[in-house]
Design goal:
2 copies of one chain form a homodimer. By secondary structure, the first copy, chain A, is α+β, with helices and mostly antiparallel strands. Helix content of chain A is about 35%, strand content about 25%. In chain A, a hairpin with an 8-residue loop joins strand 22 and strand 23. The interface between A and B is large, with 75 and 75 residues.
Chain lengths: ~650, ~650
């Protein structure tokens, strides 16, 4: 799929990528050692961008709703991830090429070959082929497989339907597709081995003895669940509430490509919102977001082999059942607003519902916020309804009471069949079997009790099954037992909360921000493109560039003074007093995404006025120190935009030689 | 060693510990599964305290000096940590009890037994024994070993000298001490096995094939070093500069006890400051800190078996050579100022120099900032001079140019012996051996060249060693070679920078903050102690508690309004509108370390004035909204202290029933 830049120019990924590396937004980890697939470091601007996005995330979610933030360990004993289901089920399907030993991810393999065949078919039909840009490595391999061969119309339809639901297949189904369509590894011409499950967790050993296996967490969620009872207590027993956590998680991807989008170590920001499963999972603040419009791609559309979306207000989507409940809907809308705030292109977001087989083992429903990039639609935020799955399995395994006890405002009367045993006679009668028989009786269901009450009335005795006592059938006469229907009053209710989990992959979001905010200006009369990253000021790595007109001594005190002023305001700035031209210095900082620039010139020395430059328009205004600082603060806080400043302050036509957008 | 609280009261660790857990500052990870030694989670207040300390760290170090922050991966391929020396040398000495299989850390074992014997000796001499508080588990084991046995005076002296330099011993020496003094495991009465090295890194495998071993980083430093060349480029080739990183590191401790002080996963904040090794490692801002006084415990004192400290201005310590150079001294002082700012007790800091054998394999000199706690003196910040060690080994291994090329202002003339070969004759003469002989000649040292020049002049030929050519001796006659002394002019200088590394263990610092800021108020006439954590406002987890006088409806809008006002100011607050008494509610927040409280009463509803309460003195003032908010902001930013506020605003004698410090 061909993508475009923020200004509608054709998007050229290698150019952006080389710019991001040159400006050290990120860099492959251990590059001087040849690098390791799926591991990347953030350099100074990447690190600052990440910190700013996380900071806004905290304000938007944690502070706004008084969530309880925790910081749990990544090292996790195996037992916990066994209970949570990750040891058995957190796997991808992996094939091996029997000829060259290549390890291949099965779903990606099927996807690539079928896409290549569809492309070949289009070529054979003489249709224009839309180039889906790929990782260069991937492209090389694939090109071998692309031959202009026409397919039957029915086959084309089959392929398209398979691709629309590729995430819905398990290992056996992927194996069957490989057999059915004779999919061969282009590198060797050989069909790979049947898919085998490969667990994605990194294993290690905790402590000096070898019998304490552990894993690096694949998500931050488990640590939050294990602390549920303490967090509920900390929250003074009030429901609903949410915990939140920002931290690294680890997934041992089979063969990571696609740069920052598929990595083995990544920063996650996760929320676990605990809600009463009864009463339709309402949310008290749902009305605040009901009008927010989202682009939705639901499960049924995908299963029908299609990818049509519709734009709909979340209030309506919940009302008509597209989105299951208010709490899920509330968070989808809040996620949308967050992505908007940090600078995601509004035309490149959709929310896609998971299909049944695609969902994680713990999820009852799940919607992904997907962002469009040159790699296709990328899952950046998951919003799953994990139901009571996790709390239930951990409570069962440990006996810990991971539940809510709620005092009922109106006590409930419950009609039920109760059993009374004449303990004085019962014990001596059954002797050593007494306890076993008693336990079997206590365990009888309400239905069974009703039937037995009838039996007791008719026959004066009942016969019940008690494993391990005599023949397994035990007779109890009416002088030992009574069964009666009575009314019991409940003052409290116990329940296991359900969990709605918005889960953010910060690294993926950052990559999408790069693509969504990138564009180029014409070069200085030449053909060299000058890159710009138009990050919104609140997320930009550095907010203000300070440039003196020249290296003249008289500018130095003002540079120092303005740096300090900005630091006091909590605004990050950088000085560029290199000998490069002012235009060059601004260019460099356009690439770093610095939204504002202050030029210090001779007039500044005389009257303490400064010019303030806007990165995106390259327009400048001029005013005195206090006015300029106030303007900067309002832009960085997101209270005003440049258009407001331009209206308020006098324009300045100055030294800069920027050439407008071509 | 008996410790006291902030107010000089006897310190009771179990009481503090239970309060910290009750208020969820921290909690053992996976507690419902029985917990895992050395792993802890931070709950909401711990998490906020940690975030605030890290935030102040960034401001104090990174922003103040324009350091280049990076975020590198924890997963690290084995090759890198092999090169850095960690695979071979990053180990502790471990013994095994042959009887019960206990795994014991050798140095801690020797320390404990000798201390127990010294205590027994004191008892036998009828001296008062100063109770050194220990972890409860540890205490139980140890008590068995403590018997009141008098030792020879000479033995007492030996033991004391060994303990003063316990960190200086290697495995062999620890084994010898165990043999010599017949140290037996109190649990079994058996002497443990000789110490063996146990590597402290967690191992794993990166990727699906099993031949890519990796480790979790034991420090954040390596990622910074590997990016050195790119960071220098990012810094526009300017030296000196520093990189910085905040992130988790992992050490597989043998048998972690001592709560938050010895853990297997921990947050580190590390700085790598790159400095020219020539010119005495001066620092341009050293004069700003020269008068800062530090408490120093140097290497010589420890080796003499003593622990005497002296308080000295860092300027003097550098001048007299106690601290090696200005850059190291600058950072020691900056560390001191940081610790002071975040609330470390000034009477409980010392800087201890490492002894030769104690230093990490990479360090040329190292001073630890140690903080005094009920566990003894704890290393919280290390400040090592890693010399050029790391950059050199990685450059050597990979061939990457991890060095600085500096243009010399005045070019240097270098006199040297240069060799000219007559290439036309040389090649044909030596044929296939030509290249080998040439390489051997080029590798000749200056000294050797001078001697050979003499030989050539005398004999008309020289004889040189060339391995692998003929007999290993090769004759070169004067028609093939000339050796002359000439002057060469150098315009650039290349050097590998040295690294000064301040390295902060954030978790240890947090624990020390707990102990240093804890004290108790008398109970309500009873004997129950009421805990207070007197964190400085800038680091306190929550800054303001908002309490309505009662649950009266009229207070609700004001609560909401003031919450929003505080949030806009960037000040974190919490509302407590529970039915508990105001005193109780404040008590709870004293335990959470909340420095300020606003009471909303009926007068507030009428005239929008509020009372502001100081946690430490429980004094209150009353003023209008704007005045109160300004006071809060100035306290939270650390611009003013409570005494200032008390002078400026009218006191309020109100509802609270706090009882003063007993």
């Amino acid at each position: 799929m061909a993508t475009t830049t923020l200004k509608g120019q054709p998007f050229d990924r290698p150019i952006l990528d080389s710019m991001l590396r040159r400006r050290m937004f990120y860099t492959p980890s251990f590059e001087i050692y040849g690098g390791t697939a799926g591991l990347y470091d953030y350099g100074p601007p990447g690190c600052a961008l990440q910190a700013n996005v996380v900071d806004l995330w905290r304000k938007h979610f944690v502070l706004e709703e008084d969530m309880l933030e925790v910081d749990c360990t990544a090292l996790t004993p195996a037992e916990i991830l066994k209970t949570s289901g990750h040891v058995d089920k957190f796997a991808d399907w992996m094939c091996k090429d029997p000829k060259n030993g290549d390890i291949i991810r099965a779903d990606h393999f099927v996807e690539e070959i079928l896409e290549a065949r569809l492309k070949g078919d289009k070529e054979a039909r003489g249709l224009k082929v839309e180039e889906k840009e790929e990782d260069p490595k991937k492209k090389k391999k694939k090109s071998k497989a692309t031959e202009a061969i026409k397919l039957d119309d029915a086959v084309v339809k089959e392929y398209e339907e398979i691709l629309a639901q590729i995430d819905n297949y398990g290992g056996e189904e992927l194996g069957a597709l490989i057999k059915k369509y004779e999919l061969k590894n282009p590198a060797t011409g050989v069909e790979p081995s049947p898919p085998a499950a490969f667990n994605l967790m990194f294993q290690t050993t905790i402590g000096p003895s070898s019998n304490a296996p552990g894993y690096l967490r694949p998500e931050t969620a488990q640590g939050q669940f294990l602390n549920f009872a303490k967090l509920l207590e900390f929250n003074q027993q009030q429901m609903p509430f949410a915990s939140a956590s920002v931290g690294k998680s680890f997934r041992n991807e089979i063969s990571p490509r696609a740069g920052l989008l598929r990595v083995r170590e990544f920063l996650m920001a996760e929320i676990e919102h605990y809600v009463d499963p009864e009463g339709g999972k309402k949310h008290a603040r749902f009305h605040e977001v009901a009008d927010v419009e989202l682009v939705l791609l639901n499960r049924h559309t995908q299963l029908a082999g299609k990818t049509d979306v519709k734009k709909v207000a979340i209030g309506k989507a919940v009302a008509d059942g597209t989105v299951d409940n208010e709490t899920l809907g509330y968070f989808l809308a809040r996620i949308h607003l967050f992505l908007k705030k940090i600078g995601v292109d509004q035309s490149k977001i959709r929310f896609r519902q998971h299909m049944a087989n695609e969902m994680a083992h713990y999820a009852a429903d799940c919607w992904d916020a997907e962002l469009q990039t040159s790699y296709g639609w990328i899952e950046c935020v998951g919003c799953a309804d994990r139901s009571a799955y996790d709390l239930t399995v951990h409570a069962k395994k440990t006996g810990a009471p991971l539940m809510v006890r709620e005092r009922l405002e109106t006590p409930i009367s419950i009609e039920e069949w109760q059993i009374d045993l004449d303990k004085k006679k019962f014990g001596p009668f059954f002797k050593k079997d007494g306890k076993t028989v008693e336990a079997a009786i206590e365990a009888l269901s309400q239905e069974k009790r009703e039937a037995l009450a009838q039996e007791l009335k008719q026959d004066g005795k009942i016969i019940i099954d008690v494993e391990g006592v005599g023949s397994g059938k035990v007779e109890v006469s009416k002088d030992l037992i009574a069964i009666e229907k009575r009314t019991r009053v409940e003052n409290t209710r116990e329940y296991t909360p359900n969990v709605i989990e918005p889960s953010f992959g910060i690294g993926r979001i950052l990559y999408c921000l790069f693509e969504h905010n990138y564009w180029t200006r014409g070069g200085d009369g030449g053909d060299e493109a000058r890159g710009v990253l138009s990050f919104p000021p609140p997320v930009a790595p550095t907010k203000v560039l300070l440039v003196p007109l020249s290296s003249h001594e008289s500018f130095k005190p003002l540079l120092k003074y303005m740096s300090l002023k900005l630091r006091t305001l909590g605004v990050s700035s950088r000085v560029d007093d290199s000998s490069a031209s002012i235009g060059k210095r601004y260019s460099r900082n356009d690439e770093l995404g610095t939204p504002l620039g202050i030029t210090i010139d001779f007039q500044s020395v005389n009257d303490k006025t400064y010019t303030l430059r806007d990165r995106d328009s390259t327009k400048q205004v001029r005013a005195d120190e206090d006015t300029i600082l106030a303007a900067i603060k309002s832009l960085v806080d997101g209270v005003k935009v440049w258009a407001d400043i331009e209206k308020e302050l006098p324009a300045f036509e100055g030294q800069e030689t920027d050439i407008p957008v071509r």
